[in-house]
């Protein structure tokens, strides 16, 4: 995590506690401020998010930019999170099946 290594665990936990106490619309303001600070002062670029994370952030940013009510954004992101959880489960099941097939293939001796 590059630059986060310089932030001690106590400080990270303190920031998370404070963020969790805020309503979601205020957390977006915190995120905006963090992104501003990052653009001005970051010593290194932020690690790139995964494709799925980038997609979710894009949806979130689009909803915020079009003045969608906060409750709708929260519900949409919750549904996306559930859908991504299901896809992760499907991926894990597929990997398990592929692993089983791979293990059995050499011993079947065609």
Number of domains: 2
**Biggest sheet: strands, sense, closure?**
none
Count of extended strands: 0
Amount of helix: over 70%
Secondary-structure-derived class: mainly alpha
Radius of gyration: 20 Å
Mean pLDDT: 85
Describe the structure.
With 110 residues, the protein is mostly helical. It has two domains: 1-47, no CATH class; 48-110, no CATH class. Helices cover 76% and strands 0% of the residues. The protein is built from four helices and no strands. The chain is extended. It starts with 8 loop residues before the first helix and ends with a helix. 0% of the residues are buried. The model has no long low-confidence stretch (mean pLDDT 85).
In short:
By secondary structure, the protein is mainly α. It has two domains: 1-47, no CATH class; 48-110, no CATH class.
Tags for this entry?
single chain, 110 residues, mainly alpha, 2 domains, 4 helices, 76% helix
Helix/strand layout:
Blueprint: H1 9-20, H2 24-41, H3 51-65, H4 70-108
């Amino acid at each position: 995590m590059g630059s986060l290594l310089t932030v001690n665990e106590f400080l990270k936990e303190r920031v998370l506690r404070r963020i969790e106490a805020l309503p979601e619309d205020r957390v977006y303001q915190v995120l905006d401020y963090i992104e501003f600070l990052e653009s001005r002062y970051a010593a290194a670029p932020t690690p790139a998010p995964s494709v799925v994370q980038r997609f979710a952030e894009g949806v979130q940013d689009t909803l915020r930019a079009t003045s969608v009510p906060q409750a709708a954004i929260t519900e949409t992101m919750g549904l996306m999170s559930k859908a991504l959880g299901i896809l992760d489960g499907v991926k894990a099941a597929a990997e398990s099946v592929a692993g089983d097939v791979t293990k059995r293939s050499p011993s079947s001796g065609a």
